[in-house]
Amino acid sequence: MIVHLRQFFSTNPILKRVLKNSGYLFSATGFSAAISMAQGILTARMLGVALFGILGAITVFTSVINRFISFRMSELVVRYVGFYQENGKTRLAAAVFKAAAIVEMCASIIAFSLIWLLAPLGARYLAKDPHTTIWFGLYGGIVLANLISESSTGLLQIFDRFRRMAWLQVVQSLITLVFIVLAYWLKSGLPGVLLAYIFGKTVGALGFTFAALREARLRWGSDWWKNPLQSLKPQWRELIHFAISTNISSSLSLINKDSELLWISFLRNPIETGYYKLALSLANLVQMPISPLPQTTYAELTRAVARHEWQNVRNLVKHGSFLAGGYTLAAAIGLWLLGKPLINTFYTGQYLPAYPALMILLAGFLIANTFYWHRAGLLAIGRPEFPAQINFVLAILKIVGIFWLVPKYGYLANASLLAGSYILGVSLSVVVFYLTLQQRQQLNPQELGS
């Protein structure tokens, strides 16, 4: 068995490099997953189901508004800074990073302003408690700490600084845990938990930013930021198209996948939100080991596509799916068997209604994890518009389903809609990726397998 594994990796150098880089993030993610679980257990026990649901509404409220304004600059940086750096055009690479950071900074300020403006509505219609308005607004402060965190993340990915990213992730998780333990000991309730999240996420975001700025200085010199944006004039149309496409896709994805707690909070109540928050948290534990793979895979796919190494592209996605799908299936079976005892023991019996939602979610996560590369593949191969198109269709179907089913059937209906969205959206994206890959190969047959 060991011999076969060695042969498998020796014939797949790109996959080996992806797994090596992912290994740094995976180690940090695994450690962070354990810390996150400890945080969740302490928080759930301290707050109870209803306040646990309100906590989810506050954090997701900020995340949704920030991502709605965001242009997913990490993807643009990886795509274009990586391309220019690969071709020796370092001045253009630095200019793209500078432009991305400026745009992201402006977007973050707008997002923070919107959070403060809409905080009273969030408190009234999501938390069902106007007294939580101040916490909706204060938690939004993490957006300012993340002024250029997406651009910074993209730059660190390009230069393979995954180990550094892993350490920063661990530090953030540890700081948050320390303050949550303190809040648990002092019995400071929801305010204490939110302050712990704010402080931990602020330290993590600033760490990523300083690490990226240091990397830019080392790679391009201390005056890299003086590279004129005018040098990108011939590429403005392409850059804007990519940024808008990824922003639209991300915004639509908020409806399809990332605003679950808000819909339940709005249409049902904080108790069901608490059940669903726990189900999502446990499902995300299954996804955590896979979550680093899209970042590292995207960088490798971008390089392979730029060099027209089509067979390497095929090998990477095929073997990556085999590994990710096998792991997810095993983890899902484990939670199916042990989910109820785990919830009852660590979170107490009041959270047991989260188990059916967890089982439904795992069906969708199995498909999403197996083809974790579907979005990265489409971006790398030059189809940034398709994720936006499919998410638009899914958003319409999802909204209809939410207002039709969730008021009557609650959080279980929401879980079913999310799982279905994953299955349909990911499957169509994989089909389009392979069709586009075939077209690229036909246009460059002389470079096949280069």
> End-to-end distance, in Å?
30 Å
Counting DSSP E segments of at least 2 residues, the number of strands comes to 0
Radius of gyration: 22 Å
Give the low-pLDDT segments.
1-5, 446-450
* Content of β-strand: under 5%
Tell me the number of helical segments per DSSP (H or I, 4 or more residues long).
18
Return the average pLDDT rounded to an integer.
Answer: 87
Q: Structural class per helix/strand content?
A: mainly alpha
Work out the helicity level.
over 70%
What is the multimeric organization of the chains shown? single chain
Q: Which word captures the global form? A: globular
Number of domains: 1
What does the largest sheet look like? none
SSE order in H/E notation?
A: HHHHHHHHHHHHHHHHHH
Q: What can you see in these coordinates?
A:
This protein is mostly helical and 450 residues long. The chain has one domain (2-447). The protein is 84% helix and 0% strand. The chain has 18 helices and no strands. The longest helix is centred in the first third of the chain and has 57 residues, at 13-69. The chain is globular.
